[in-house]
Write a structure and sequence with these properties.
This protein is of the alpha+beta class and about 375 residues long. It has ten helices and 21 strands. The longest helix has 18 residues.
Length: about 375
């Protein structure tokens, strides 16, 4: 179990102060630190590793204290037994691969260092690279070398700072498979920093969502991203439609209520909100159906007519923005866009099920 309760203030060049104030406990396994750049994720890793000293707080792995301001304990970096993979990898350019991996084993004899490093290279399927220098290997291979170096010392905690950010999709998938295997074998806490939502879903057993130096949500990735409870989390989770409206009428008999979003009315799930109360509602673009003709005899309660105002081509999908009185975004495949002959200015209809709308805490 990793226990972290820390506060650290940084004075920025703008004259403002950035305060990191986090408190969390995580068991063995992969915990993802997710959030926008500058929210405090990497800073947390620096503090846990001992690269930076907190102003106050406590850091412990199991019963072993790394830092405790009340007891004036601040364990040196070398005594913390923490494996760390930096975003820039920080491989030594003058050393070959096997000596990069063996670097942290200075207390062992040369023979023992090379033997353990060689075994770690074999575990990552890079033993054939042992004599090469970092400038002679690929990005994916360098990432495996960095992971091998972090793990060869048999750490009790592993810190990974955006380790896959510079890799292409195919190499990234291969390394994700490696990380999943390692997670099953190591049985240690792993803190994994990313701002990639797909990595959170694929890798994380739990996620801590960061914003402005604080953790604003935590839990299992599908719970946090599937139906985020706060507006700030919904935005970070990539929810494309976030609307503010006012409750117009409650329909207790069918478990819904009508909400007015500035002239556009929709039925949303019934809550305790009273008529006249303001709500924030989120709808994922992938939960909105788009039709070239007005749908009839369909179960969705919300059928909205509008005109296409924007078409955004993405790798495997198309984001269509439709003006229905307010702008709503729907997600389609490229094939569907072609079949429906969608163009700017064309009238279309959006079908939205009541329960595709989820209510947010607008203050969060």
């Amino acid at each position: 179990m990793l226990s972290v309760q820390i506060v650290k203030t940084y004075n920025q060049s703008s004259g403002k102060s950035f305060v990191l104030d986090v408190d969390f406990q995580v068991p063995a396994g992969i915990t993802v630190l997710f959030g926008a750049s500058g929210s405090g994720k990497s800073t947390t890793l620096h503090l846990v590793a001992g690269l930076v000293e907190p102003e106050r707080g406590r850091i412990a792995v199991g019963n072993d204290l790394f830092f405790d301001s009340s007891s004036k304990i601040n364990l040196p970096i070398k005594e913390r037994r923490v494996g760390y993979v930096f975003q820039q990898l920080a491989l030594f350019p003058h050393l070959n691969v096997i000596n990069n991996v063996a670097y942290g084993l200075h207390k062992l004899s040369k023979g023992e260092r090379l033997q353990r490093a060689s075994a770690m290279l074999e575990a990552f399927a890079i033993k054939h690279l042992a004599e090469r220098r970092p400038n002679e290997i690929s990005g994916g291979e360098a990432q495996r070398v960095a992971l091998a170096r972090a793990l060869v010392t048999r750490p009790r905690l592993l810190l990974l700072d955006e380790p896959l950010s510079a890799l292409d999709a195919i190499i990234k998938q291969s390394l994700i498979a490696d990380l999943k295997r390692l997670n099953n074998e190591l049985n240690i806490p792993i803190l994994y920093v990313t701002h990639d939502r797909a990595e959170v879903i694929t890798l994380g057993e739990r996620v801590l969502v960061y914003s402005d130096g604080k953790i604003i949500a935590q839990g299992q990735p599908m719970d946090i991203f599937g139906a985020p409870a706060a507006s700030s989390v919904a935005r970070l989770a990539g929810v494309e439609n976030i609307l503010q409206g006012r409750v117009k009428a409650r329909h207790t008999e069918r478990g819904t209520m009508t909400c007015d979003f500035g002239g556009l009315e929709m039925e949303i799930p019934l809550t305790n909100a009273a008529a006249g109360e303001t709500l924030t509602v989120a709808i994922r673009a992938g939960d909105i159906l788009l039709a070239a003709e007005e749908p009839r005899r369909i179960s969705a309660r919300n059928i909205l007519a509008g005109n296409i105002t924007k078409i955004e081509e993405q790798d495997f999908r198309v984001l269509i923005e439709v003006d229905c009185g307010v702008a709503l975004r729907a997600m389609l495949t490229h094939e569907a866009r072609t079949e429906l002959d969608l163009k700017i200015g064309r009238q279309v209809w959006l079908a939205i099920k009541t329960h595709a709308c989820f209510i947010l805490d607008s203050t969060g």
